[in-house]
Design the sequence.
């Protein structure tokens, strides 16, 4: 995420405009979506991605999300704003609701269940915002496999962020509630979209799609597109794309392969690789590195919960 507008400048601009409806909307659209650079995530969120204190992001991000959502209600056909709102919901769910829930012990069953229900809600809400934007340009792309395949052959690179965040929210939501039949029917389409996005831009967000596929193929049944034989190739491809800068690649492979195989030596090695990455060497993704390393540390500290022999 590079050369993105500062949230401080963005907030000042809003004040100078006197919070006028149309003017404010255009400022946020430029700051949060339509001005996003090539090969990046949503624009206005860049300042959060560079933060070294996750708690301040957890406290402030909801305000930005709801502000953008309120503006989207006045400009419902603004696709770039829908992308920013939807992706922000997905990121917030993953980083500050679902992620922390995964680090709770089974003694906190009710708390974990509530958090996962809330995370699913945010994942699906985010995906729906982006799905509506996709449907306006490609009617049926999220619901009709035949139409989706036809659209995807002609899909342009500019739609990769939409496809990625829609698919990520859809699959993550289903992962938290595999009994949701309606959501399960959206997963195959989401998989098709991700495959096409990976063809168009494998380096999107430093290999985020490959990272996603590590967990997808490790956990999804083959009836919904999962393929365990692709997990290791995706892990190796992710490392090529991110040049070893993403601890998430190591953590995803460790949880998706090492734990099921009960390979504790491999697990420790992967987690140590994740923890060896210096967040300050990669400032544009500092926040996500810190959060991923928190996960890795917790897993190592509680390794007995994952391996029978420990």
Sequence:
């Amino acid at each position: 995420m590079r050369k993105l507008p500062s949230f401080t400048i963005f907030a000042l601009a809003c004040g100078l405009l006197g919070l006028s409806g149309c003017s404010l909307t255009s400022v946020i659209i430029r700051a949060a979506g339509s001005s996003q650079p090539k090969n990046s995530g949503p624009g206005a969120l860049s300042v959060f991605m560079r933060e070294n204190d996750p708690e301040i992001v957890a406290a402030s991000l909801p305000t930005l999300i709801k502000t953008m959502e309120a503006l989207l209600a006045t400009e419902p056909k603004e696709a770039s704003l829908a992308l920013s709102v939807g992706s922000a919901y997905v990121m917030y769910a993953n980083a500050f609701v679902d992620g922390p829930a995964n680090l709770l012990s089974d003694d906190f069953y009710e708390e974990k269940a509530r958090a996962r229900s809330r995370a699913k809600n945010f994942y699906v809400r985010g995906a729906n915002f982006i799905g509506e934007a996709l449907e306006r340009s490609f009617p049926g792309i999220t619901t009709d496999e035949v139409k989706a395949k036809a659209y995807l052959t002609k899909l342009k690179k500019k739609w990769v962020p939409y496809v990625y965040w829609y698919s990520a929210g859809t699959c993550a939501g289903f992962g938290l509630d595999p009994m949701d039949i309606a959501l399960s029917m959206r997963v195959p389409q989401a998989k098709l979209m991700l495959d096409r996005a990976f063809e168009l831009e494998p380096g999107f967000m430093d290999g985020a799609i490959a990272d996603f596929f590590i967990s997808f193929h490790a956990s999804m049944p083959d009836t919904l597109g999962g393929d365990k034989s692709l997990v290791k190739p995706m892990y190796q491809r992710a490392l090529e794309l991110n040049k070893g800068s993403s601890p998430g690649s190591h953590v995803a492979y460790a949880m998706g392969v090492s734990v099921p195989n009960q390979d504790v030596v491999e697990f420790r090695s992967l987690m140590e690789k994740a923890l060896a990455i210096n967040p300050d060497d990669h400032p544009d993704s500092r926040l996500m590195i810190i959060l991923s390393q928190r996960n890795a540390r917790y897993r190592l500290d509680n390794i007995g919960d994952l391996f029978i022999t420990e």
Q: What stands out?
A: The two ends are 40 Å apart (CA to CA).
